[in-house]
Specification:
With 210 residues, the protein is mostly beta strands. Helices cover 3% and strands 36% of the residues.
């Protein structure tokens, strides 16, 4: 769209009523606090755009007891243990080009976090459905290929935190994790983009006390 408000055009249009682009699906918005579905590149020449298809999601029929004469309303709701929406991610250029971002969506179906800044490659946090394992992935925008930057495992649960993961201005991964004694300290870890985070330098958050 031009500065005069004219010439707008769609970069992505839903293929059906069950498909959305650039919006957070139910699980992301309600359970993971990810309320958006698109992220601009630092140069503003392309975007990362989430595509959600809720065709697999079970339909429920909700009636209004105050108006029994009305037909029940159909609602797509992914109850626990039932199918979720199919979520994918694309790099979409302002020229209309489109490249799908590839990761193991069968093992890690939840697109929990997305970060794109001038400090590094686009960064994803994807989780397994049981939320006991997650991957931090760097994206190559040209091909859509991803590489693992870090992986987390927990026998019980992995929490999600606002604002992370991200790259620091110096290009180091920033994440939050519980790595001390239970209930003790949260650690913020950082590592260079091309190196495993297992040797990352760690420090305690100044807002916590062990």
């Amino acid at each position: 769209m031009g500065a005069d408000g004219e010439g707008d055009r769609a970069l992505a249009e839903p293929e059906s009523e069950q498909v959305t682009y650039g919006l957070a699906e139910f699980i992301a918005a309600e359970e993971m606090s990810r309320t958006r579905g698109f992220w601009w590149s630092p140069d503003a020449d392309r975007l990362l755009v989430a595509r959600a298809d809720d065709t697999p999601v079970r339909r429920w029929w909700i009636a209004d007891p105050a108006h029994p004469e009305r037909e029940p309303q159909q609602v797509a709701y992914p109850a626990a243990g039932t199918a979720n929406a199919d979520v994918r991610l694309y790099v979409i250029g302002l020229d209309g080009s489109r490249t799908e971002v590839a990761w193991d969506r069968a093992r890690y179906p939840y697109l929990a976090r997305v970060h794109w800044s001038a400090a590094g490659a686009p960064l994803l946090l994807v989780q397994a459905r049981d939320q006991r394992s997650q991957l931090f992935l760097a994206v190559e925008p040209g091909s859509g290929a991803t590489r693992m930057v870090h992986a987390d495992e927990d026998p019980v649960w992995l929490d999600l935190f606002p604002g992370v993961p991200c790259w620091s201005p110096s290009g180091r991964l920033v994440r939050i994790a519980d790595e001390g004694a239970p209930g003790c300290c949260r650690w913020v870890n950082a590592c260079s983009q091309g190196r495993s985070c297992t040797s990352a330098r760690c420090w305690t958050s100044p807002t916590t006390t062990c």
